[in-house]
Amino acid sequence: MELILKYFPNLTETQKLQFEALYALYIDWNEKINVISRKDIENLYEHHVLHSLSIAEIIHFQPQTTILDVGTGGGFPGIPLAIMFPDAKFVLIDSIGKKIKVGTEVASAIGLKNITLKHLRIQEEKDKYDFIVSRAVMPLDDLIKLSKKNISKTQKNAIPNGLICLKGGELHHEIMPYKNIADLYEISDYFNEEFFKTKKAVYVPL
């Protein structure tokens, strides 16, 4: 939790309590339904919560912004972002029902009111959103092809509507078709822990 406050010192009391509660909830649920690798659960705040919050360094979602988290797993990056931006609206989808159950239970336990979780694939999602976020769910080109139908034309934010994707490793090949429009962010520019040295975020306006 100190790690979150190191980079986001201005959280409200409600936000602090919600972030603090995540560890015990994910430990408990992960024993029943494995959504985070057993070895990695102790790194929850660094590898999952803070990693998700790198999107908050790229954009400050305006009130009433709608965000779709594709392939959310147990709720990342959607749940940390929903805590950080209580006036934005989040929909989290995943094709695996038991993962959605974990995310739903965690969101309910911490009293998140700005979030909906749905068991479905991106191909089945019909609604429009200002932004789509994801964390290493599929190759960039596939994600863009499947999700561009879901991007709203109405603009509310400082950057145009589009996709913000958290990824690791070498991305030049993936980004090549979009190199004229995509922005690549080094997450190590925001967070100085070793884990983030190879982590990147890709923003593609759609």
Helical proportion? 25-40%
Order of helices and strands: HHHHEHEHEEHEHEE
Number of helices: 8
Summarize the biggest pleated sheet. 7 strands, mixed
CATH class: Alpha Beta
Q: Which residues form runs of ≥5 with pLDDT under 50?
A: none
Strand tally, please?
A: 7
Strand arrangement across the biggest beta sheet:
3-2-1-4-5-7-6
Radius of gyration using CA atoms only? 16 Å
Number of domains: 1
CATH architecture grouping: 3-Layer(aba) Sandwich
Mean pLDDT: 96
Given helix and strand content, the structural type is alpha/beta
User: What is the molecular shape?
Assistant: globular
Protein traits:
19% strand, alpha/beta, Rossmann fold, 7 strands, 206 residues, 7-stranded mixed β-sheet
Care to give the gist of this entry?
With 206 residues, the chain is of the alpha/beta class.
Structural write-up:
This protein is α/β, with parallel strands linked by helices and 206 residues long. The chain has a single domain, classed as Vaccinia Virus protein VP39 (Rossmann fold, 3-Layer(aba) Sandwich), CATH 3.40.50. The chain contains eight helices and seven strands, in the order H-H-H-H-E-H-E-H-E-E-H-E-H-E-E. It has a seven-stranded mixed sheet with strand order 3-2-1-4-5-7-6, with helices on both faces. Strand 2, helix 6 and strand 3 form a beta-alpha-beta unit. Helix 3 crosses helix 5. The N and C termini lie far apart (35 Å).
